[in-house]
Amino acid sequence: MIRRNNESPVPLIWAHLRSPNARELLYSILFLLLVAGYLVRTHLLFVSRASSELQAELKKIKSLMIPSYMIELRKLLDGYPTSELNSFSG
């Protein structure tokens, strides 16, 4: 780009942006950004919904596991007299 003495490059850029091809390019970029934003939003909603469903399922599993764990722990503890357990606590 050859500039004359005091001519700034900004008017040349605006002159190029006024052309129909540059407008089409800008509109295409804007459209692609909107589509990309929509796809990201949709994906985030899907991941959020799947995550909340998974969390609910894990809560159900956890509520089922805790009683059986406590039953097994109680069986193990019942096998030892309480006086021996207290001797470990110092």
UniProtKB/TrEMBL annotation:
InterPro entries in UniProt: Ycf2_N
Ranges for domain Ycf2 N-terminal: 1-88
Keywords, comma-separated and alphabetical: ATP-binding, Membrane, Nucleotide-binding, Plastid, Transmembrane, Transmembrane helix
Record localization: Plastid
Any one annotated GO CC term: plastid
Family to which the UniProt record says this protein belongs: Belongs to the Ycf2 family.
Protein name: Ycf2 N-terminal domain-containing protein
Organism, as annotated: Coptis chinensis
